[in-house]
Amino acid sequence: xxxxxxxxxxxxxxxxxxxxxxxxxxxxxxxxxxxxxxxxxxxxxxxxxxxxxxxxxxxxxxxxxxxxxxxxxxxxxxxxxxxxxxxxxxxxxxxxxxxxxxxxxxxxxxxxxxxxxxxxxxxxxxxxxxxxxxxxxxxxxxxxxxxxxxxxxxxxxxxxxxxxxxxxxxxxxxxxxxxxxxxxxxxxxxxxxxxxxxxxxxxxxxxxxxxxxxxxxxxxxxxxxxxxxxxxxxxxxxxxxxxxxxxxxxxxxxxxxx
Length: 258
Prior knowledge:
It contains eight helices and seven strands; from the N terminus they run αβαβαβαβαβαβααβ. The chain is an alpha/beta fold. It has a single domain, classed as 3-Layer(aba) Sandwich (Rossmann fold), CATH 3.40.50.720. The chain has a seven-stranded parallel sheet with strand order 3-2-1-4-5-6-7, with helices on both faces. β1 (about 15-20), α2 (about 25-40) and β2 (about 40-45) form a beta-alpha-beta unit. α4 runs parallel beside α5 (about 115-140). It is globular.
């Protein structure tokens, strides 16, 4: 576990803590680095990739930001609770949660999908963000003494595309659930000073989008290319900023028009 040491500034302290789940690589790492640059103290969550998480923390600290790497399986409430406690002790009051952690599931026809694999997919991609949001609401609710804040859940173009790549039905279902979840949560916690939105990335240049079929499909949008992780990070940065103070219950599509 790594803390921010003596590099924190007063301005950074004032912005409080942001937890980014699944932030050891790809979109999550880009979000963590962007938010650290915006002045937040960032908790870089990971489950297995400790080396990747520490690398993200090092990159943030090299630029004068504050970050700490915290291991927690988002599907475990005990581990999530410990992460939230650690985040606030090291980084200050919680300002935002970015529900980014997720797995891709099995690329197979529906009639060949493994039930255990689908159960794990559901646990990580649906239950995990809900458990994290539960603890974020407790920490940020003005009714409980918090300062309000923002929850951004990373969904996917898979929740919307009528004819995307085949054999991803369980994954598509989990991401569709997250769009609905973010909208429903917004309705429930707005009075507590908390905004909730989702971002649906298109095909982004990460390990998750490594298959030639997926990358080829993703490049057939109006812009003729797949996206970059920093383009998702920019959308998240805006959503948790004061500039988006009247935006809640919304899904932002960052897909290059796909």
